[in-house]
Amino acid sequence: MGRAVAAHQVEGGWKEGGKGPNVSDIMTVGSHASPRKITPVIDENEYYPNHEAIDFYHRYKEDIALFKEMGFKCFRTSISWARIFPQGDEEQPNIEGLKFYDDLFNELLKNDIQPVITLSHFEMPYGLVEKYGGWRNRKLITFFERFARVCFERYHHQVKYWMTFNEINNQANYQSEVSVLTNSGILFKEDEDKEEVVYQASLYELIASAKAVKIAHEIDPSLQVGCMMAMTPIYPYSCNPEDMLKAVGANHKRFWYVDVHVRGKIPGYMQTFFKRKGYAMDITQEDLEALKQGCVDYIGLSYYMSFATKGDGNENLDYNEATDLCDNPYIPKTKWGWPIDAKGLRYTLNWLYDRYQIPLFIVENGFGAIDVLEENHQVHDQYRINYLKEHIIEMKKAIDVDGVEVLGYTVWGCIDCVSFSTGEMKKRYGFIYVDKNNDGSGTLTRYKKDSFEWYKQVIASNGEKL
Known about the structure:
Elements: E1 2-4, H1 7-10, H2 56-70, E2 74-78, H3 81-84, H4 95-110, E3 114-120, H5 126-132, H6 139-155, E4 161-165, H7 177-184, H8 194-219, E5 224-230, E6 234-236, H9 241-263, H10 268-277, H11 285-293, E7 298-302, E8 307-309, E9 325-326, H12 342-356, E10 360-364, H13 382-400, E11 406-412, E12 432-434, E13 446-448, H14 450-460
Parallel strand pairs: 1-2, 1-11, 2-3, 3-4, 4-5, 5-7, 6-8, 7-10, 10-11
Antiparallel strand pairs: 8-9, 12-13
Helix pairs in contact: 2-4, 6-8, 8-11, 12-13
């Protein structure tokens, strides 16, 4: 058991150690009501929260000491691609960036914490967006292969569990500019078919992922390399056959990525979809062979909520995430409008394991809230404890009752960090409070929340004492 973060949401040091700008560095702070602005040129009048984040780049030893105190067995983070290849297309890596992760991983291992590493967690070099248009360009497969090879060769003695692309299926919601930029480095052009562009980019990423898996196994056969999916199951609103079929179509669009990662081929339902839409996907016979040769060893997943959808008579089962979801009257919501569905985690684990029969790794699950720092520097976050307790109970049922093979469980945000979607600090997930506000003010001092001691006993008891 452990916790998870992403490099761009915690590290800061955006220009230090030879690092280049990444896609998150060009996004301003936003809010739930106002999206982050994407600014190809840095505007001195705007605030860019990822530039400093919570300064993990300089404070990681202090933070790891707190992780050790909590009893972490593992810590999931990512390698900032732009810290290793500042522009993304260099022939040789940035040695200073490599050295930072040498030191970080050694510090974790010294404290008996196993690093679990994502190669690309919403933080590709912005140079690849400017020069090549992001993942709309086939050339990025080669650049990602080079990045992956350098990381596997450098760190395979320190890191045994890897993932390729974080929540690669989130770009199925291609209407979200932030999701598409952070997933694929794409800025849409006027009048182009956004859906077609995103699916082509997705295929290039899936090919790159498969090639990375093959490289890892060639370098060190003991390495375990997984995919990483945002698992938000989409329920039918009712047992009405129209609702049932609509849910089938919705899950096809969100989770076909898993089929490719695990089975090494594009599923028939997506091939038919591309043909019906007239999308001439650029994928060669060599690419298809690469997909077969690079199947993942496990499925990493995030789980926060579930969705529901109603039938609309569309015989093609087409799905639009912006318009086709409906409220589920059987479950409550957070103040942020996110459904709370602990039983959905058990459902998700069963759904995935029944379908693929390979190990699962829950690498994100957490509760975002506006935590209040009291005068005595205490944070009483019983709501977070309640949420996590309910989900851990359902995870245990999936393992003990249903026989699902789960490799591990890392809660999102062991420490408060910048929100990827809004750039805010006030939506907090951590067991450790960081004194920083949405406007960047604050001391960055760390304080333990009530959930810190609670999760410490959960780890010590291996989930038996909740």
